[in-house]
Amino acid sequence: MSPPVLPAIECQELTKSYNTRITALNNLTLAIPQGSSFGLLGENGAGKSTLVRLIMGFIFPTSGHVRVFGEEQVTLAHGRIGYVHERPIFETRFSGRAFLTYLGQLSGLWNTANHTKVQELLELVNLHEAADRTIGTYSKGMMQRLAIAQALLTNPALLILD
What we know:
- The chain has helices at residues 48-56, 96-106, 111-124, 140-152; strands spanning 9-17, 23-32, 63-68, 81-84, 158-161.
- It contains four helices and five strands.
- The protein has two domains: 9-72, Rossmann fold (3-Layer(aba) Sandwich), CATH 3.40.50.300; 96-161, no CATH class.
- The radius of gyration is 18 Å and the shape is globular.
- The strands form two sheets. Strands 2-1-3 form a three-stranded antiparallel sheet, with helices on one face.
- The mean pLDDT is 90.
């Protein structure tokens, strides 16, 4: 009998208060199965980005627990997570291709494997025709797509888009 599959993300009675007056999340419990797609919708200030920051381990809960692939210390799961910030920041003097190639090298991809992966991602996010232009000439939408390619570079098991 195979062991049970842990949820990709599990939150139990998760609360985050920023001070005595602001509670961004209050007693949230949810489990997101591995392999599923999940969207979180809400008004500005509803706590969506706070939840993402808690899941990523950028901030800590006031109470409750967050587990990613069963790990309560979320940093242990970081190698399995691709993350796209709501406002990605790039070195705009690089071309899109050079940027992804550099990050691939930092992630341990070299030579042919890196070039192949970068080309596949540029095609996936439809930036292959603009790949050799500097990022500073990209539109906001193109930068978002480049951020998605960056997040996919290491073949993450979980992709989080803020």
